[in-house]
Specification:
single chain, mainly alpha, Rna Polymerase Sigma Factor, Chain: A, 9 helices, about 65% helix, about 0% strand
């Protein structure tokens, strides 16, 4: 029987059901890791922050008066923890993102973006095009890049993104729009072609 996130969270909190918590992690790990990886662009750091996210979640859920309120929004709650962990790391590094990048994560949003423009030089392979895409995304302003990641890596709605980042829905939508416009411009410059097919959906 499929149990909702809320049912699993309650089972873990009230019954110490370890299997329930494992199911929560398995259900959402790719989305959470995808967001963290996209923000820090370093696989080792992303793994550390991913683990830190769930350490913090466990501590919060196990408090006598835990910070988790049963509202049917467990993923949004954990995403806030992940976001705080990322921002803590960035404050320690005193910059928005790491300069160095590792190999791209297989199956990430960047690999799935539709309409990646073909390079003028037909000898340039797909790996090179993906590298260019990632480099362009890294150069986006931090707030725009975060909305892009939250939308496409975690599947959060713009209302959820707005709540998580403490802005209005219109602001979240605006950041997404400018992220895609800026991304298209940078790709055109890098590849010398039109970057069509990137949408806000």
């Amino acid at each position: 029987m499929h149990r909702t996130d809320e049912a699993l969270a309650v089972a873990y909190i009230e019954e110490d059901d370890q299997e329930a918590f494992r199911q929560l992690v398995e259900r959402h790990k790719e989305r959470i890791f995808g967001y963290v990886m996209g923000m820090v662009r370093d696989r080792d750091v992303a793994n550390d922050l991913f683990q830190e996210t769930f350490f913090r979640a466990i501590r919060a859920m196990k408090k006598e008066r835990g910070s988790y309120a049963s509202q049917g929004k467990w993923l949004a709650w954990v995403m806030r923890i992940a976001r705080n962990a990322v921002f803590d790391h960035m404050r320690e590094r005193k910059k928005w993102t790491d300069v160095e990048t590792n190999d791209a994560q297989d199956g990430s949003f960047w690999d799935r973006l539709p309409g990646t423009p073909a390079p003028a030089d037909e000898q340039v392979d797909l790996r090179h095009r993906i590298d260019i895409m990632e480099q362009c995304i890294e150069r986006l302003p931090g707030e725009q890049r975060e909305v892009l990641l939250l939308r496409h890596e975690t599947g959060m709605t713009f209302r959820e993104i707005a709540e998580l980042t403490n802005v209005s829905i219109n602001t979240a939508l605006g950041r997404m729009r400018y992220a895609l416009l800026n991304l298209q411009k940078m790709i055109r410059i890098e590849l010398g072609e039109e970057a069509d097919g990137i949408r806000t959906t």
